[in-house]
Structure formats: structure tokens, C-alpha cells
Amino acid sequence: MTLIRQYSGVAPLVLLFLLPLALSLVLLLPGLVDAGAFLALSQHPQLSGALRLTLLTGIASTVLSLLLAVIIVAQSNRHLQQQSSVFLSVPHLALAMGLGFLMAPTGLLARVIAVGFAGWTSPPAWQTTQDPFGFALIAALVLKETPFLVWAMASVLQQDELRQRFGREMIVARSLGHGAASAFSRIVLPQVLRRTIWPIIAVFSYGMTVVDMALVIGPTQPPTMAQLVWMDLNDGEVLINGRGAAGTLVLSGLIIAVLAVTLLLWRGLRPLQRLWLTKAARRSRNPAAFFKVVWPVWLLVYVAVIVSLVLQSVSPRWPFPDVVAPVLSMAAWLQLLRDFSPLWTSLGMALASSALSLAAVVIWTETQPQKNDRVILFAATVLLCLPALLVALGQYRLLLLVGGTGTWAGLLFAHVLPVMAYVIVMLIGPYRAFDPRWQAASHGLGASRLKYLMRVKWPMLKPPLLSSLAIGFAVSIAQFVPAQLAAAGRFSTLPMEAVTLSSGGNRALVAVYALAMMLLPLVVFVTASWASRPRWRAA
Amino acid sequence: MMLELHAVSLALAGKVLLHPFSLDVAAGDIVTVMGPSGSGKSSLLALIGGDLPIAFQSSGDVTLDGRSLLHKPPEARRVGRLFQDDLLFPHLTVGENLLFAVPGFPKAERKAMMMTALQRAELTGFANRPPHTLSGGQRQRVALMRALLAKPSAILLDEPFTKLDTPLRVQMRDYVFAHVRERGIPALLVTHDRADAPRDGRVLEISGDGVLRDV
Amino acid sequence: MLNRRHLLASMSASAFVPWLGRDSFAADWGAIEAEARGQTVYFNAWAGSDSINAYIAWAGEEVKKRYGVTVSHTKITDTAEVVKRVRDEVAAGKADGSVDLVWINGENFRAMKQDKLLFGPWSEGTPNYALVDVAGKPTTKQDFSEAVDGFESPWGMAQLTFFADGAKVEKPPLSMMELRSLAEANPGRVTYPAPPDFHGTTFIKQVLYESVVDPAVFASPADASAFSSYGPVLVSALDELHKHFWRDGKQFPKAQADIINMVADGELLIGITFNPNEPANLVAAGRMPATTVAWQHRKGTIGNTHFVAIPANAKAKAGAQVLANFLLSPEAQAKKNDLKTWGDPTVLAVEKLSAEDQKLFTSVSAPGSVSLPGPALLEPHASWVALLEAAWLKRYGQG
What we know:
heterotrimer; B: alpha/beta; six-stranded mixed β-sheet; 10 strands; C: alpha/beta; four-stranded mixed β-sheet; 12 strands; about 15% strand
């Protein structure tokens, strides 16, 4: 009986996640032996430029995000975790589009400067988007990934037992004569970093392989490796497709190589680290004033991005340098309302994939012993750290094999995989940490398992349950590459529509779609945090 | 009503915690089992209550009123529990915590039972208070009333006084023992503190080699 | 299923058999229309333009009303994606493919035709094909010098056209040489979209045509050894232009649509389009000022025809033919030709239409219409595209 329950409890996660993931990865293997494709890739005139650019954008965005996240986390703020989770809901693509509208030579910023100070009548020759070094792409990535790292670190810092221990250790360090910054960076930071290594790797992997953001705001001559690969994968020629697949593998190899080099450097520099960690105490070093404003500035940039998106969305014609377009029109919004299908598809996919993932993970944890969690945590971590392009390609091959492209089920499957990975990583910790004595106490009061789950466990776990549902929802809304491949043109989701529209240059409509992509997850986030607010303020 | 343990033994990962022993607890009796932490005394209660983790191995049988408990799901065993922590559900009010334990009666009757329990906990008027606004002693009283409201056929007391400070502890012991005895159900208390055991009750101790002996 | 496909193929092939009279042909078409009823046609078409999307939506409604065929516009960014998708599906043995009709021409057509990814021949069997101006518009039979052979149905005409705000550009440059001078005088205000955007590729072809003595060589299939002499000519001509172009010719806008926005914003001076009526359309839509002028180069610019084709594994082949036939009807062609809707020039021989139908094609000159037309030059053979793009990428793909 228990055995049956245990095995049936495995089924959802195995069928929805582990098996498809494994098969998708296996289907990539033939590409490894396609020497011709690798040869063709090596002869691609843009290869070396694209690799250089990818290394620059990937490494710079990760290092900067990490640095900024550490600075923000060090300015201990009790609400950091909650505040940063709001940023998690913003899709990368929408942010890149908004940032483009803000920073471009004809963007809001240039208009404000033109009208307010410079008196320009034609747009300045700024290289603020599509700049050859990918700085705009780096900026967009940093803007998006820093809150994610802040969230990951804040989650570590807010685990009860760690928070108490870190607090005590800080007091000890300060009693030994270290200033707050010194004590934090020597005592707490190394421990936090060790626990956030996977999120950091995920950020790096994302920065190295992002397609949709690079298409919108990245350079083209040469493009990043991910763009190069994406174009090849979508080409009409078989040989070029093979070259794209080879490029995906090279990109994955590059990520692994950078990580390996980083690890070796880290090990090699350990004596230096020891030296620094044990260096004499420094009393005076308190955080610079600049550090304190980093987090508020974040909020400000996001607000500016949203303002420029809103302005753009109601400005069908917006001659430079007007700060407000001569005629404001809701035409683009009406067009979104007229063609509801991308909105519905995205909404349906997001609701279904996040709910399915949540259910599968809950069923798993309710039926499996904790030691089995290693398997799914490993799979989820692998998925989050592998280039999304690579996984999407494997997924697409799997779908082609079973004839699932262009079907609802296929599209849902494409969304479930990444969503499930996030839900696993987010939920399993808090779910397992739930004190088993609540169950003993409930059963002792005669409550059935169902009553215990419905009245005690799930209500008490509402915050992590709902926030992982909301994150899953946001992850689903943001999916572009796997969705585009799986949809086979039969379905259109918000990011697919937005990328298509951005090739057509109707900026008002692009802004509308970017805003829709931002608003849906935001609504879910706000609802989730409203629904999981504590019934009363804890003592 | 009688709680009987027949040749019960406990082991964890091959290491014997408790060698087979038998023990009868009669209705209205409070039997105390003492032992240092890690000796398996809490696991013994978990075995009876039905939430022993899979990693443990056990043998023997536990019966209540002559019927074996071990194959019943935990909620059907009618065995109440009190823990070190009061374990009042933090998202429910004091009154809702009590109602949670009241079996299915008409609504008005359930409410009346809840109000009586509150009164007996000397907490009339506290029904709508969140648990965290109560003192430690008040919460432990609510926890006891909640356990008793479920009409258990036996009650297991898992070091329920450990977290209280000394003057309160004396009060709580008297309060808990009085109410358990009044209910006339068998009670099994585990503790590491000799002072927690009722003066007139039977007291056993788990020795270092896992054998249970009368003190 | 196999039988039905054979039947369909023989039906459309029958149009080529001279001894079959018009009556039996009509009966065949009747069978296709009957089969089409109730089918859903997934029309994969570039969807970057609102006016085009609106036109396709209109055509879909009409076809639904008249023939009971449902049209679903699959919005795509690049036709190459469709070629890839069909290829993947055929390779995976998927018989009921996701594409029923695709908007296509040039190298994408050549790739699909060569690799037997297209259904056909069928296009010359549709009733309205008889109205196509095959004599006056030879590109309706030769798509980038590749024989059409009934594998795609002509839809619209295109010719490389430039436009600008006449208030800012008083004397339109009527050759690449003049464009270079204009760019020199206004550094950073001229550019073109990066290939493989087809406007970009066409711009490069145009530069090539204006840099070699006899462009006729490009009509035959590509010859890599011959290209070794043309490549350097092209590169040095482009180098000359790029010096004065936007961002020193090191970065290029990604799409033609970006160019239009940049011209409208004043970031660029000269716009590029493949649709001679697009500038007028932009004026009508309020996106460009009424002072807009449009022109073609004095010695001509590259022109071509765009088509619709049916993939070999299409599910709704009959429905797709019915839609293609409707798109060729005088009514649909005239509406497409209208500046207020799309402004895409017709492939029909207007003078051969009935007087009533001719009235639909009222050609009034509107602000932004081409005021300095040039002759249409034939596209180079499709096989040159890969060589040109590779040469471009090698020289300019690295910033």
C-alpha cells in the first residue's frame, strides 16, 4: 500500500520532468560527433568575435551583478527578500525592451536631455543600444540578475538558524575590533557565497546564452554566440542547422571551461584569501554613502523603464525631441485586446505549468523520503545551469520525435520543464523544513491526513507555496526559445509575439506587449503576497 | 481503558535503543519513562502515536483496550499528544485551535465545548486571540485542553514542562496531572527530569544499555 | 490519404495538359473548392507590418465567408524559420505538417523546391492565374532566376525604393555614387539593415550591380570562381559607402522596420523599402510627413515578385490553393494595391481585366508616391545570395 503510494507519487515528477529532461539531453548526443558541423562552425567569419563578445557580456554581467548584490545585501534590510522577489517577476525580454526604449538615441532619456538641456533637434549619435561591446546587454542583464542574486542571498540570510548564527558571529567579530563592513565581508559573506553558488552559476549560464534579450538590445556585428547559434538553428539550410547545434555545444563547453578556470583560480588563490581573512581588524571602514543608495536606485531605474514603456505604448508617432507624443492613442492597447490569443495562450500556459509543477513537487515531497530529493534537486540544478538553448534544442528534437510540435501538450511540456526546475529549487527546502511534530499533533487530535494538509500544513506553508507558484508563473511567461520551437507557428505567446512585432517596428505595440508581459506576473505576485500575508503580525 | 505495550523494542540503523519490554498503563494512571536525550524515549511515543520515522525498526505490539494500534493510521488511534512546545497552530486563533480538535457535532454544540474548554483553561474571553499573544503557561494550558477536547483514549506527554520556568512548571504539572486523572485515561509521560514525574506514579528509566527498569 | 494526394496532384497537373478543355478544368477546381470547405489553412507569413497583418486578416474573413475555409495567420519573423520547420517535420515523417501556405521567394523558394519540400506543380491551375501578367512581369515565372514551374503562386510585385523627408533631402540621390556623396555630407545618417534581412541583402546586390560593368552574369547560377573577382569589387564599393554610414558601418540596424522608425525619428535621412508604395502608405498612416519623397535609381533598381507556396507535407492543400486563388483575384489584388490598406503592387495584367475590375485599380498619385521611377532590374540568380552574404559577413560581420 505504502509502496504503491510511494511509486505513484514519483510518477508526476518523473513523467513531467526527469524523463523528458533526460531524453532531451540524450537527443543532443548525436550532434557531438558531427565533425562537419564543427568544421563549418570553425569557418564562420563571426565565430571568434562572437565568442569574445559572449565571454565579455557573460562574465561582466555576472561579476557586476554579484558585486552589486553583495553590496545591497550587506546593507542589511529586513524586507530584502520580499522586495527582491518582486523584481524576479519581471521577464528579461520585457526589461530589455523597456531599457531599449529608455536608453536609445530616440529614447525617453535623450528626449529629456534634448528638451531640458541640450536643445538637440535630431537624436544624438549615442551607441546606447546595440553597442559593439554589448554594454547595453550587460546593463540589461545586471539590472535583471542583481535582484535575483539579492533574493538568493537574502533567502540564505533569512533562514532562522543561519540568521541567528550569523548575528552571533558578527557580534563576536565586532567585539574583536572589526567594523561592520569588515566583519560582514570576512565572516558572513564567504558563508553566504558558498550557499549561493548555484544561483550564481545559473546567472552566469543565463548571461552567456540569453537569446531574446540579445536580439532586442545586443550588438549584431558580431552578435553574441547565442544569437549566432539561434540564427543558425532557424536557418533554412540543413548544414547551417547542424552548425547551430555544434555552436550550442561549443557554447556549453565554453561555460564549463570558464567555470573550471574560475574554480582553479579560486583554489589557487586560497592562500591569499586566508591572508585577507585573517588580516588585522579594520575599525574605520564603514560602507560608503554610495552603497546605501544602490537599492533605491534600482527601484528608480525600473520605474523609469516602466514609464518609458507606458509612454511608448500610447505614442503611435513620436517625433524627436518631443517628451510627450503630439497625439496619444490607445490603438496599440486596443490591438492587444482585439487579438487576445497570445495573451490567453501565455496565461493558460503559465497557470497550467506552474500549477502542474507545484502539484508534482508537493506530491513528491508528500510521498518520497527526503533522501530521494537529491535526484530532483540535482536535475533541477543541472537544468538551470545548462544553457537554455541547449535544453530547448533537445526538447524540440524530442517533440519532433513524438510528433508533439504544434500541439497544446507539446507547448505545455516546453513550459513545464523550466518552470518545474524553479519550483523544485524554491519549494523543496521550506517544504521539507516543516516541523513533523505538527503532523503528530494534528493526528493526535484525531485529524485525518487530508484535514492536516488542508487546515494545518498548507495554510502554514502558504508563503513558500504561493511564492513558488508565482515564480513558476513568471518563468513561464518569460519563455521564448523553447516555446518558439515547440509552437511550430501554431501558437503564439506574449514573448513570441513581442519578438515578431519588434522586427516590424511598431514600437507602441511592442511596448504594449512588453508591459503585458510585466503586468501578468506582477499581478500574480501581488496577489500571492496578499494571499499569503500573515493573519496577524508575529510577535 | 488500558494502554499495553507487549515486548516492544526499538532500533535505529542497527543500533538497539530499547530492548524488548512490556508495560501496562491503566486508566487514570500516569507512568513516567525517564532517560537522557537520544535514549529513544520520544521515539517510543512516536511509535505509539504513529509517526515513527521509517529509519527506525520496531517490534512488539501496542494495544489500547485490547485492540492493536500499530496498524491503524495515526489519526484513528485516539492517542492525544502534548509536546515540549505547545504546537498551537499559529495561523488559527485560540478558539479555532480548540475547535480543530472537536469532533463532528452540530455547530452550536462544538462552540459550547470550545467555550467550556477555554473556561477550564482559565482563559475565558481569549477565543479570538492569536496564540502568540498568550504567555507560555497559558499556551500550554490551551494545548492540553485541545488535546483533551479530541476525546483521546490515552495521552502521551512528551516532556511538556521542559520549556517552562520553575514556578510555572510546578503549577503546570499539577494542572496537567489533575486534568488527565479527571479524564480517567492512561497517560505515558517521558522526561529527563525526575522532578516532572508525579509523586505517586510508577517511574521507569532507560539505562545506557537500552533496558527499561523501574526506579 | 495517399490516394487523395495523388488525386490532388493529378488535378492541378491537368492544367498543363493542353487537350483538357476549360470545362474539365473548372470541374477539377470545383472538386478542390469542395474539398477545401471546412479546412483550416495555416498561412505562415511575415508579420512585422500592421497593414499587412490587417490585409491577411481581411483575406481570411473573405475566404471563410465565400469558401468556408478558415485562415489562421502564423506570424513569423523570418521565412527561413518556416523552411527549417518544414524540413524538420518532413525529416521526422510528419505528414500533417504545421504549414499549409507560406509567403516566400528567392533563396527560400529555391531551397524548398530543390529539396522537394514543396507541393506541386499547382499554381498555374488556379482559375485566377490566367489574369497574371506573365509577359509584362517576367519575374512571375522566374523567381530570382529560378524557374517557378507552378510550385508557387505570384502574390505581389516589389522593387527596391528609397525615400526621405523632402524637407531634409532636397535632391534625392539617384545612384550609389550620389548616395555616397549625400552620406559624406551627412555622416552617420544613412545605413541599411544587416543581411540576411532581405532589404539589406538587396541593397548589397544593388551596390554590386552598380559596381560591375555587366550585371547580366548574375542571371546564371552562381560561380564561386567568378565571384572571386566580383567580391573585391563589392567590398571596395561598400567600404567607400560605410565610411560615412551610421556608426561608421560597423553596426547595422537589424531590420528594415528599424530603418523606417529611425527615418521617422530623424536619426536617419534615407529609408529603404521593397514596396514602392510603402512611403506613401507611411504618409497616409501619419508616420512620415507629407513632404516625403520616394525614388528609384536612375539606371534601375532590383525588382522581384513575392509568392505563396504549399509545403509538401501541408495538411490543407486544397484550402491553401483556394486561398492562393483568392489572393490573385482582381478584388484582393486591388485592395492590396490600395495605399490605404497595404499598397503592394499587383501581379495582374490590369489592362486585360474587365472594365469593371479595372476600375478597382484606381492609381492616384499620393504624397510619398514614387516621383522618380527607374526600371526594374532582375534579381541575380538565387544561388548568389549565399556567396554575397558570406562575403559581407566576412568583411563586416566583426564590427
